[in-house]
Amino acid sequence: MSGVRRARILDAPAIARIEVETWRSTYAGILADESLLGMSVERLTATWTSELRRWPRGIMVWDGGRDGLLGYGQCGRQRDRSLPFKGEIFMLYVTPDAQNNGIGRQLLLAMLGSLATSNYPSALVWVLRNNPARFFYERLGAKLALHRQIPFGGRLVEALGYGWNDLSATLDHWVRSGDRSTGR
Ligand SMILES: CC(C)(COP(=O)(O)OP(=O)(O)OC[C@H]1O[C@@H](n2cnc3c(N)ncnc32)[C@H](O)[C@@H]1OP(=O)(O)O)[C@@H](O)C(=O)NCCC(=O)NCCS
Fold first, then answer.
1. What is the pLDDT of residues 152-170, one digit of tens each?
2. How many Å lie between the centroid of ligand 1 and the Cα of residue 22?
3. 116 touches ligand 1 (CB under 6 Å)
4. What is the CATH number assigned to the segment(s) 58-176?
5. Which pLDDT belongs to residue 182?
6. Which end of the chain has less Cβ packing within 10 Å, N or C?
7. Which ligand 1 atom is nearest residue 131's CA?
8. In the chain, what are the domain boundaries?
9. Is 100 in the pocket of ligand 1 (CB under 6 A)?
10. Which contacts of 26-35 are long-range, i.e. CB under 8 A and separated by 24 or more positions?
11. How confident is the model at residue 179 (pLDDT cuts 50, 70, 90)?
Protein backbone atom coordinates (compact mmCIF):
# COMPACT_ATOMS: atom_id res chain seq x y z
CA MET A 1 0.00 0.00 0.00
CA SER A 2 1.22 3.54 -0.76
CA GLY A 3 1.97 6.09 1.92
CA VAL A 4 4.39 7.31 4.56
CA ARG A 5 6.47 4.86 6.57
CA ARG A 6 9.71 4.92 8.53
CA ALA A 7 12.81 4.32 6.40
CA ARG A 8 14.77 1.05 6.44
CA ILE A 9 18.43 0.44 5.65
CA LEU A 10 17.51 -1.11 2.26
CA ASP A 11 15.92 2.25 1.27
CA ALA A 12 19.34 3.94 1.13
CA PRO A 13 19.86 3.62 -2.69
CA ALA A 14 16.36 4.98 -3.47
CA ILE A 15 16.82 7.88 -1.02
CA ALA A 16 20.17 8.68 -2.63
CA ARG A 17 18.61 8.64 -6.12
CA ILE A 18 15.79 11.00 -5.03
CA GLU A 19 18.34 13.34 -3.42
CA VAL A 20 20.40 13.61 -6.62
CA GLU A 21 17.30 14.07 -8.86
CA THR A 22 15.65 16.71 -6.68
CA TRP A 23 18.84 18.67 -5.96
CA ARG A 24 19.61 18.90 -9.69
CA SER A 25 16.09 20.01 -10.59
CA THR A 26 15.60 22.34 -7.60
CA TYR A 27 19.00 23.99 -7.20
CA ALA A 28 20.12 24.45 -10.84
CA GLY A 29 20.94 28.15 -11.13
CA ILE A 30 20.97 28.54 -7.32
CA LEU A 31 23.97 26.36 -6.43
CA ALA A 32 27.23 25.90 -8.34
CA ASP A 33 26.91 23.54 -11.33
CA GLU A 34 30.06 21.66 -10.24
CA SER A 35 28.59 20.69 -6.89
CA LEU A 36 25.35 19.46 -8.54
CA LEU A 37 27.18 17.57 -11.28
CA GLY A 38 29.55 16.10 -8.69
CA MET A 39 26.77 14.44 -6.73
CA SER A 40 27.01 10.66 -6.76
CA VAL A 41 24.22 8.16 -6.03
CA GLU A 42 26.86 5.62 -4.92
CA ARG A 43 28.47 7.97 -2.39
CA LEU A 44 25.11 9.15 -1.07
CA THR A 45 23.94 5.54 -0.74
CA ALA A 46 26.89 4.92 1.59
CA THR A 47 26.07 8.10 3.56
CA TRP A 48 22.39 7.15 3.93
CA THR A 49 23.22 3.56 4.87
CA SER A 50 25.29 4.78 7.81
CA GLU A 51 22.71 7.44 8.70
CA LEU A 52 19.96 4.78 8.73
CA ARG A 53 22.09 2.58 10.98
CA ARG A 54 22.83 5.47 13.34
CA TRP A 55 19.43 7.16 13.69
CA PRO A 56 16.64 5.53 11.62
CA ARG A 57 13.84 7.02 13.72
CA GLY A 58 14.04 10.49 12.19
CA ILE A 59 13.92 9.38 8.53
CA MET A 60 10.62 8.84 6.74
CA VAL A 61 9.83 7.84 3.18
CA TRP A 62 6.76 7.94 0.95
CA ASP A 63 6.50 4.44 -0.47
CA GLY A 64 4.61 4.22 -3.77
CA GLY A 65 4.53 0.40 -3.77
CA ARG A 66 5.29 -0.80 -7.30
CA ASP A 67 6.39 2.76 -8.21
CA GLY A 68 9.09 2.64 -5.51
CA LEU A 69 10.00 5.47 -3.15
CA LEU A 70 8.77 8.90 -4.31
CA GLY A 71 9.95 11.12 -1.44
CA TYR A 72 11.75 11.23 1.89
CA GLY A 73 12.40 13.53 4.80
CA GLN A 74 14.51 13.71 7.93
CA CYS A 75 13.74 15.39 11.24
CA GLY A 76 15.09 15.53 14.79
CA ARG A 77 16.34 17.80 17.55
CA GLN A 78 17.02 21.36 16.42
CA ARG A 79 20.76 21.81 15.85
CA ASP A 80 21.23 25.38 17.15
CA ARG A 81 20.28 25.45 20.83
CA SER A 82 20.27 29.29 20.84
CA LEU A 83 17.13 29.35 18.65
CA PRO A 84 13.64 29.19 20.17
CA PHE A 85 12.55 25.99 18.37
CA LYS A 86 13.00 22.47 19.73
CA GLY A 87 12.60 20.25 16.68
CA GLU A 88 13.81 20.62 13.10
CA ILE A 89 12.89 19.39 9.65
CA PHE A 90 16.35 18.77 8.21
CA MET A 91 15.23 17.90 4.69
CA LEU A 92 12.21 17.04 2.61
CA TYR A 93 12.38 15.98 -1.02
CA VAL A 94 9.75 14.64 -3.41
CA THR A 95 10.95 13.27 -6.74
CA PRO A 96 10.23 15.83 -9.53
CA ASP A 97 7.66 13.71 -11.43
CA ALA A 98 5.63 13.13 -8.25
CA GLN A 99 5.49 16.72 -6.93
CA ASN A 100 2.18 18.54 -6.40
CA ASN A 101 0.27 15.37 -5.53
CA GLY A 102 0.12 15.80 -1.76
CA ILE A 103 3.19 13.64 -1.00
CA GLY A 104 5.21 16.50 0.50
CA ARG A 105 2.30 17.44 2.78
CA GLN A 106 1.92 13.84 4.02
CA LEU A 107 5.64 13.50 4.71
CA LEU A 108 5.83 16.87 6.46
CA LEU A 109 2.82 16.19 8.68
CA ALA A 110 4.17 12.73 9.54
CA MET A 111 7.49 14.29 10.60
CA LEU A 112 5.83 17.09 12.58
CA GLY A 113 3.71 14.38 14.27
CA SER A 114 6.83 12.38 15.07
CA LEU A 115 8.52 15.48 16.57
CA ALA A 116 5.43 16.25 18.65
CA THR A 117 5.29 12.71 20.05
CA SER A 118 9.02 12.96 20.84
CA ASN A 119 8.20 15.94 23.09
CA TYR A 120 9.34 18.70 20.77
CA PRO A 121 6.57 21.32 21.03
CA SER A 122 7.88 23.50 18.18
CA ALA A 123 9.86 23.06 14.97
CA LEU A 124 11.96 24.92 12.44
CA VAL A 125 12.89 24.38 8.79
CA TRP A 126 15.57 26.21 6.81
CA VAL A 127 14.85 26.93 3.14
CA LEU A 128 16.89 28.87 0.59
CA ARG A 129 15.42 32.30 -0.11
CA ASN A 130 15.35 31.52 -3.85
CA ASN A 131 13.57 28.20 -3.42
CA PRO A 132 9.79 28.39 -4.03
CA ALA A 133 9.41 25.51 -1.54
CA ARG A 134 9.12 28.24 1.10
CA PHE A 135 5.56 28.84 -0.09
CA PHE A 136 4.83 25.16 0.56
CA TYR A 137 5.92 25.60 4.21
CA GLU A 138 3.80 28.76 4.51
CA ARG A 139 0.84 26.78 3.15
CA LEU A 140 1.46 24.21 5.89
CA GLY A 141 1.27 26.85 8.62
CA ALA A 142 4.93 27.82 9.14
CA LYS A 143 5.75 31.47 9.87
CA LEU A 144 8.88 33.28 8.70
CA ALA A 145 11.04 33.63 11.81
CA LEU A 146 14.75 33.91 10.90
CA HIS A 147 17.24 34.92 8.21
CA ARG A 148 20.75 33.57 7.96
CA GLN A 149 23.67 32.92 5.60
CA ILE A 150 24.33 29.16 5.57
CA PRO A 151 26.98 27.00 3.91
CA PHE A 152 25.16 25.02 1.24
CA GLY A 153 26.51 23.12 -1.77
CA GLY A 154 29.97 24.61 -1.28
CA ARG A 155 29.04 28.30 -0.95
CA LEU A 156 27.31 30.69 1.46
CA VAL A 157 23.66 31.23 0.52
CA GLU A 158 20.82 33.19 2.07
CA ALA A 159 18.36 31.02 3.95
CA LEU A 160 15.06 31.69 5.66
CA GLY A 161 13.99 29.92 8.85
CA TYR A 162 10.30 29.04 8.98
CA GLY A 163 8.87 28.00 12.33
CA TRP A 164 5.88 26.24 13.83
CA ASN A 165 5.56 27.64 17.36
CA ASP A 166 2.88 25.20 18.43
CA LEU A 167 3.05 21.78 16.76
CA SER A 168 -0.03 20.47 18.58
CA ALA A 169 -2.17 23.29 17.21
CA THR A 170 -0.75 22.79 13.69
CA LEU A 171 -1.42 19.05 13.77
CA ASP A 172 -4.91 19.50 15.25
CA HIS A 173 -5.70 21.92 12.45
CA TRP A 174 -4.66 19.44 9.73
CA VAL A 175 -6.38 16.51 11.40
CA ARG A 176 -9.58 18.59 11.60
CA SER A 177 -9.11 19.40 7.89
CA GLY A 178 -9.29 15.66 7.15
CA ASP A 179 -5.61 14.78 6.87
CA ARG A 180 -4.89 11.50 8.68
CA SER A 181 -1.16 11.25 7.89
CA THR A 182 0.28 12.84 11.01
CA GLY A 183 2.20 9.74 12.09
CA ARG A 184 0.74 9.93 15.60
C1 LIG B 1 8.56 21.38 -1.64
C2 LIG B 1 8.02 19.96 -1.79
C3 LIG B 1 8.58 19.09 -0.67
C4 LIG B 1 6.49 19.99 -1.69
O5 LIG B 1 6.01 18.68 -1.87
P6 LIG B 1 4.81 18.40 -2.91
O7 LIG B 1 4.43 16.98 -2.81
O8 LIG B 1 5.24 18.89 -4.25
O9 LIG B 1 3.67 19.38 -2.35
P10 LIG B 1 2.14 19.04 -2.01
O11 LIG B 1 1.49 18.52 -3.27
O12 LIG B 1 2.07 18.16 -0.81
O13 LIG B 1 1.57 20.49 -1.69
C14 LIG B 1 0.86 20.81 -0.51
C15 LIG B 1 0.31 22.24 -0.66
O16 LIG B 1 1.41 23.14 -0.81
C17 LIG B 1 1.27 23.86 -2.04
N18 LIG B 1 2.60 24.01 -2.64
C19 LIG B 1 3.50 23.04 -2.91
N20 LIG B 1 4.61 23.56 -3.46
C21 LIG B 1 4.37 24.89 -3.58
C22 LIG B 1 5.12 25.99 -4.11
N23 LIG B 1 6.35 25.81 -4.62
N24 LIG B 1 4.56 27.23 -4.07
C25 LIG B 1 3.34 27.43 -3.55
N26 LIG B 1 2.57 26.42 -3.03
C27 LIG B 1 3.08 25.17 -3.06
C28 LIG B 1 0.40 22.97 -2.93
O29 LIG B 1 -0.24 23.71 -3.94
C30 LIG B 1 -0.56 22.39 -1.91
O31 LIG B 1 -1.55 23.37 -1.61
P32 LIG B 1 -3.11 22.99 -1.36
O33 LIG B 1 -3.17 22.45 0.03
O34 LIG B 1 -3.80 24.29 -1.48
O35 LIG B 1 -3.49 21.98 -2.39
C36 LIG B 1 8.41 19.34 -3.18
O37 LIG B 1 7.82 20.12 -4.21
C38 LIG B 1 9.88 19.24 -3.40
O39 LIG B 1 10.48 18.22 -3.04
N40 LIG B 1 10.49 20.28 -3.99
C41 LIG B 1 11.87 20.24 -4.39
C42 LIG B 1 12.82 20.05 -3.23
C43 LIG B 1 12.71 21.12 -2.15
O44 LIG B 1 12.79 22.30 -2.46
N45 LIG B 1 12.55 20.67 -0.90
C46 LIG B 1 12.52 21.56 0.24
C47 LIG B 1 13.89 21.87 0.70
S48 LIG B 1 13.86 22.86 2.19
1. 767 788 999 999 999 999 9
2. 13
3. no
4. 3.40.630.30
5. 46
6. N
7. 44
8. 58-176
9. yes
10. 26/131, 26/133, 27/128, 27/131, 27/153, 30/128, 30/130, 30/131, 30/157, 31/152, 31/153, 31/154, 31/155, 31/157, 32/153, 32/154, 32/155, 34/154, 35/153, 35/154
11. low
